[in-house]
Write a structure and sequence with these properties.
The complex is a heterodimer of chains A (558) and B (150). Chain A is built from 15 helices and 16 strands. Chain A has 558 residues and is α+β, with helices and mostly antiparallel strands. In chain A, the strands form 4 sheets. A 5-stranded antiparallel sheet of chain A has the order 2-1-5-4-3, with helices on both faces. In chain B, helix 3 runs parallel beside helix 4. Classes of the chains: A alpha+beta (558), B alpha/beta (150).
């Protein structure tokens, strides 16, 4: 029997540790669901956003490069035109002709149709303003430029385009000047730099972008669209385009720069990445929110589903395990039955001999001289005890046979309520001696069940007998009958101390008893168990919610 | 009961005129039981197998047969059937070590008078024998029947 007890407790151990096992399964499932559902979502979102940004940067860089090229061409062409025009005048007219204020004005009027040229002046090789036409006649007439950097440059190389400077006019402008081939005089024109400004303002560098021209020293030649006063050192290194156009991408900006005016100036177009992508970022934030929300829903739904699934599995496992334990108990009982049948005979014969021999000795003692036997009373007492204990052993072997009784039940239509009352009546004297009362909650109108009444009565008797023993003194035994599905259920609830965990496990094992030695055989409940199995029903024991123990007998109604 | 009109005769007298055959493979039991029954005036004999029992009832008339159900060789039931064929008037009391009434009931279906379950107190055994004695008429010595005589 020990082998079986061991197996049961191992199963119980499994059940005990199963709590953490199922919790771990739940976590694992939820984790897997998150990985397979949320992770791809995040990956798709990240790659989509990454590639969108990358392609936008490439496209914008290319556009900016194209833009800087076209603007460079226009500006270079414009500068060339101004220079060439002045050069053709120098060749066409003599210094004397243009030194005449009227002639100069005539020429200025003839060519200044576009409004680009602000003024025109003729300067001799000493730097003296010979003639001037334009809006600043008053300020400039008679000025001497011999010390001006541009004048020195023109006298040296024959041509000059100045940086933008304020000069005497207190207004930003730049100068285009050419000398005659003999460098005896200079024709000088001031160009309105507003043209560049409007050319750059219309460059379309996007919000937060900038477009400007800087000189070799990095000074603004046109105002920054953003109103910057000076170029930062960092930005200057980004936009240094020595001899050809370039595109640079930094964290915040895309720069496109091209050298103009023979490399003296650099045209810079700058696009602010973050501002330009602000809508994209907004959309991306919205996407992230949507993904987070979707992930949250997935998380919640998957957790709920997994929990419900694992709970169902856990329930099923528990039921299966309980069933396995039941099956084990049934098998155990069958084995006990077979064992009992063969053992009973082998034990009963020696018992018969023992009691017979003891009786024989007793009989012979009668004939002895009583006076000579000083221990006669001890002999008699000993013989009596031998015979009593043989009887006791005989009772056990007879009860053991309860397991192996064949299925030759005498099935009759039985009124369970009546049977219960009848059984309780058998114990009424004993119960009242211990001040124990029976309370009945019997469902009326129960259909009669076809079963073996005497065997069933044996089961009820065992349960009630145990209940009385458990209570000891003063208490109640409540008996309830009801129909549950196609089963008839009889419940016996006592106000005793209840069952220990050990007792619940071993209650139906043969020879398990909590009673004193000699008081109980430990067979009653295990026999009841096999009786219920053979009747197609079941019996179980548990502790009541309000204390005491509850024995439930279930019978099929057919 | 045949003995009803003979109430004046004591049980001991009744028993004294009866013969009992004990069939059990437990020799210690048989020997002691023989001694104890003989002291009470019963005429008895013991055998240890079914075959021996059949041989014995063929040669001698017994009023009562005490028959164990589990015997080596021929079992108690078939021995019972055979004994009943040879001596239909002999009262057979089944002794069973199986601790269940099943064997006894099976024996009674085959003509046994009653059964006793081992371990049985000597007093109960005597009582059962007395019951059998009262049932059977030991005063008439019955002739032994041959097998074919039915």
């Amino acid at each position: 029997m020990k082998i079986y007890t061991g197996t049961i407790s191992m199963k119980d151990l499994k059940l005990k540790s199963s709590g953490t096992y199922y919790a771990r399964q739940k976590q694992l499932f939820v984790l897997v669901v998150i990985i397979v559902s949320v992770l791809p979502l995040l990956i798709i979102s990240w790659t989509a956003s990454h590639y969108y940004k990358k392609s936008w940067l490439e496209k914008t860089s290319a556009e900016l490069a194209g833009l800087v090229d076209s603007r460079k061409e226009i500006i270079d062409l414009f500068l060339d035109n101004q220079e060439n025009m002045l050069f053709s005048f120098v060749k066409l007219y003599s210094v004397d002709h243009l030194s005449d204020q009227k002639n100069l004005e005539k020429l200025f009027l003839a060519m200044d149709r576009s409004g680009v040229m602000v003024d025109l002046g003729v300067i001799d090789s000493k730097g003296k303003h010979l003639a001037y036409t334009g809006p600043y006649q008053r300020q400039l007439t008679g000025k001497n430029y011999s010390e001006a950097a541009w004048f020195i440059e023109v006298m040296r190389s024959g041509r000059y385009i100045s940086d933008v400077f304020t000069g005497y006019r207190n207004e930003p402008h730049f100068v285009v000047a050419v000398a005659d081939p003999g460098k005896t005089w200079i024709l000088r024109a001031t160009i309105n730099s507003e043209l560049f400004n409007s050319l750059l303002a219309s460059a379309g560098v996007g919000p937060g972008g900038d477009a400007y021209i800087i000189n070799r020293a990095g000074e603004f030649q046109t105002p920054s669209l953003l109103g910057e006063k000076a170029l930062s050192a960092v930005e200057r290194t980004q936009v240094t385009a020595k001899d050809k156009a370039l595109v640079r991408i930094t964290d915040k900006y895309i720069y496109a720069a091209a050298p103009i005016n023979n490399g003296d100036w650099t045209l810079v177009l700058k696009t602010d990445i973050n501002t330009s992508l602000s809508e994209f970022y907004l959309a991306r934030r919205r996407d992230i929110l949507i993904i987070l929300f979707a992930s949250l829903i997935i998380l919640v739904v998957s957790t709920l589903i997994v929990r419900s699934m694992v709970n169902k599995i856990e329930d099923a496992d528990k039921k299966r395990m309980a069933l396995n334990n039941r099956m084990l108990q049934v098998e155990k009982m069958a084995l006990v039955g077979r064992l009992a049948a063969s053992v009973a005979h082998e034990i009963n014969n020696p018992l018969q001999i023992i009691t017979n021999q003891a009786g024989w000795v007793d009989e012979l003692l009668e004939e002895e001289d009583q006076g000579l036997l000083k221990n006669i009373d001890e002999y008699r007492d000993s013989i009596k005890k031998i015979r009593e204990n043989v009887k006791r052993a005989g009772v056990i072997t007879r009860r053991l046979l309860g397991f192996s009784r064949a299925n030759d039940f005498e099935k009759t239509e039985t009124d369970i309520n009546h049977l219960i009352e009848e059984t309780a009546a058998l114990l009424a004297n004993e119960a009242s001696a211990h001040r124990i009362t029976f309370r009945y909650f019997l469902e009326q109108g129960l259909t009669r069940v076809v079963t073996d009444a005497s065997q069933l009565q044996q089961v009820f008797l065992n349960i009630l007998d145990n209940a009385i023993d458990a209570i000891g003194q003063d208490g109640t035994i409540s008996i309830t009958t009801r129909i549950n599905g196609n089963q008839l259920v009889a419940e016996f609830k006592d106000t005793g101390p209840g069952l220990s965990p050990d007792a619940i496990k071993k209650l139906f094992d043969p020879f398990y008893t909590t009673k004193e030695i000699g008081k109980g055989t430990g067979l009653g409940l295990s026999i009841s168990f096999s009786i219920m199995q053979r009747l197609g029903g079941d019996i179980k024991a548990e502790n009541g919610k309000e204390g005491g123990s509850v024995f439930t007998v279930m019978l099929p109604m057919q | 009961m045949k003995a009803h009109n003979e109430n004046s005769r004591s049980d001991a007298n009744l028993m004294a005129s009866c013969s009992v055959l004990i069939v059990d493979d437990e020799k210690d039991f048989v020997h002691t039981l023989l001694k104890r029954l003989k002291r009470r005036g019963l005429e008895c004999e013991g055998v240890f197998t079914g075959e021996e029992a059949i041989e014995t009832v063929k040669s001698r008339q017994f009023n009562i047969v005490l028959l164990d159900m589990k015997l080596p060789g021929r079992d108690g039931n078939s021995t019972l059937v055979e004994i009943k064929k040879i001596q239909p008037d002999a009262e057979v009391i089944i002794l069973t070590g199986h601790a269940s009434a099943d064997d006894g009931i099976a024996g009674m279906k085959n003509g046994a008078m009653d059964y006793l379950m081992k371990p049985v107190e000597f007093e109960s055994l005597l009582e059962m024998l007395l019951k059998a004695v009262r049932k059977t008429d030991c005063s008439h010595s019955l002739p032994v029947r041959d097998k074919g005589e039915k």
